[in-house]
Amino acid sequence: MEGAAEPGNLAGVRHIILVLSGKGGVGKSTVSTELALALRHAGKKVGILDVDLCGPSIPRMLGAQGRAVHQCDRGWAPVFLDREQSISLMSVGFLLEKPDEAVVWRGPKKNALIKQFVSDVAWGELDYLVVDTPPGTSDEHMAAIEALRPYQPLGALVVTTPQAVSVGDVRRELTFCRKTGLRVMGVVENMSGFTCPHCAECTSVFSRGGGEELAQLAGVPFLGECPELVPGSRPPVPSLPWAGLTSVPPVPEGEEGMGAVSSSLLGPHATLLRPVAPPPTPFSGPSWVAGPGLLGGPRVWRWKPSGSASVLSMATGGSGASS
Amino acid sequence: MEEVPHDCPGADSAQAGRGASCQGCPNQRLCASGAGATPDPAIEEIKEKMKTVKHKILVLSGKGGVGKSTFSAHLARGLAEDENTQIALLDIDICGPSIPKIMGLEGEQVHQSGSGWSPVYVEDNLGVMSVGFLLSSPDDAVIWRGPKKNGMIKQFLRDVDWGEVDYLIVDTPPGTSDEHLSVVQYLAAAHIDGAVIITTPQEVSLQDVRKEINFCRKVKLPIIGVVENMSGFICPKCKKESQIFPPTTGGAELMCQDLEVPLLGRVPLDPLIGIQEFCNLHQSKEENLISS
Question: One GO CC term of this entry (chain A) (predicted)?
Answer without folding.
Answer: cytosol
